[in-house]
Task: structure prediction
Amino acid sequence: MTAGPFATATEVESAGEHAYLGSIAPGWDIAGNANGGYLLAIGVRALVAATGRPDPVTATAHYLSPGRPGPVGITTAVVKEGRRFATASAVLESDGRPLLAVLGTFGDLTEDAAALLVDGSPPDLPPVEECVHLAPGGAWPPPFNARVDMRLHPDDASFARGEPNGIARVRGWFRLPDGEPVDTVGLQLALDAFPPTIFNSDLPVGWTPTVELTTHVRARPAPGWLRCRFTTRFVTGGFLEEDGEIWDAEDRLVAQSRQLALVPRG
Amino acid sequence: MTAGPFATATEVESAGEHAYLGSIAPGWDIAGNANGGYLLAIGVRALVAATGRPDPVTATAHYLSPGRPGPVGITTAVVKEGRRFATASAVLESDGRPLLAVLGTFGDLTEDAAALLVDGSPPDLPPVEECVHLAPGGAWPPPFNARVDMRLHPDDASFARGEPNGIARVRGWFRLPDGEPVDTVGLQLALDAFPPTIFNSDLPVGWTPTVELTTHVRARPAPGWLRCRFTTRFVTGGFLEEDGEIWDAEDRLVAQSRQLALVPRG
Result:
C-alpha cells in the first residue's frame, strides 16, 4: 500500500536520540503559513514514534511562529511511560526558530468502550453534493483547500460571498482526497482545517492566530466522510475560543477540540 | 500584606537554573491525592517565575501520578519569549516520580479588551446562603473542602445525599477562605475544585482520574464570589470531558476549562 498524500506530508524519520526530522510540504498553507492542524500532525507523528503508541488520546499545541515549507527538526521527551498511556512533549523548529510546542498523552484506541452518555448529535448536514466546496483558487480559498476535501453547510458558507450569517459556527463534511483514510493523526488535521467560525459572525475580524489547540480523540474513525461542527461563544479579553466536534459515519463522536485564538486589536 | 493560605501553599522558590522547589501542603487532597487544580497552580507559579509574566493565559496539565504531601521539584523550560507572550513547560516531580507535565503560555492580562461576542451567561444561582456548603467531614466531603469555599446549587448537590439528579452538571459559588483574593493562578484551582459532574449523572461512576486539563484565562477576576458551571456531554470510549466556565462578580467570563478524564472500566 502506498502512503497517501497526508501520510507522506507528515512523515518523520529518526535523527538520533529523541530527535526526528520532518518537513513542511508546499501547499499546506493558508496565506503562506502552514495550517495549524497540519503542523500539529507532524508533531504528533514524531510523538507516536517516540512513545511507540499509535493514537494521540489528547494533544495540546502552542503556536510560536508561522511554519513555512522546508525541513523541520523535532525534539521529543517522554515524560512518563505507563502501562496504558505514555505522555511526551515535542518542540518543532525550523531554521533555529521554534514553531510549535506539543504536549500529549498517547495510547491505543483499538478497543472502543461503550457510549454511556451522549448529550449531542452529529451536525445536521445536507448531502455532500448539496454542500459548498470551497475549491482553491488564487489567494483565497487557499491552496490548502486542495489538500483536504471539505464541504460546508450552505448556511455556513455565505461568508465566502461576503454575507456572513451572524452565527459564529462552521459545519461541514471532511475527508482526505484520493481515498486516503483519516486515522487518529488525520483527526488532528480535521480539527483545524475549516475556515474560522468568526468569519460567519458580524465582527470585522479577518485573522485569528491560534495560541493553543487541544485535541481529544475518543475513537478511531470508521471509514467514510466525517461530520464536523465548530462554534465560538465568547470573543472577550482579546481572545476567542473555538470548540470542535467530529462525528464519524457510524454516528460516533470521534474527537473534540478547543482552541484559543487571538483577536487582533483593530 | 501577609500571603493567604492558597498563595502560601503554592509558593515556589528558585533552586538553580530552570529549577524550582515547592511543596504539596497537607489538607489539599481528596482521598489522599492532592487536588488537580492545586497541583497545576504550583506548576503555574513556577512558570510565572520562569517566564516573568504574571498571568497564565492558557495552561495544559497532564496528570501522571497522584500527588502526596511533601516537597516537589519543578523543572522548567522556556520555549519562546515573545513581546506579548512567553511559552514554557514544566515537569513536577516528587521522590523521583513525575506527577505532572505542564505546557503554558503566559502574558499580562492587566488590559482588558472589550467583549465582542458573549453567547452565554453566568449560571443562575440562588443566593450564597441558600446554596449547599459541602463542609469537610471525615473521608467525605474531603479535607480539601476546607481549603476552598464552595457553595453548590441545591439542584446540583443532591448527589451528596445519594440522589443524583441525572444531569451531569455542577454549578456553584467559589471563593478562597479568609478573604484571600482569587488571582489568575487561583483560577487554576477553581477550575478543578468542584465535585465531578458525573456524580450528578445516573452512571455508577465513583472515580474519574483526570488525564488532561486545559485552562484559558480571559481576564483577571474582580473581587468577590465567582460563579462556576461545569458540564459533561459525552461519556464515550472510556473517557469523559468536563467543560468549565467561571464568571466574576462583574458578570464577565474570566476563565474556561476542559478536561479529559478516564472512566474506569467497571
About this structure: Chain A has one domain: 5-109+126-262. Chain A has a mean pLDDT of 95.
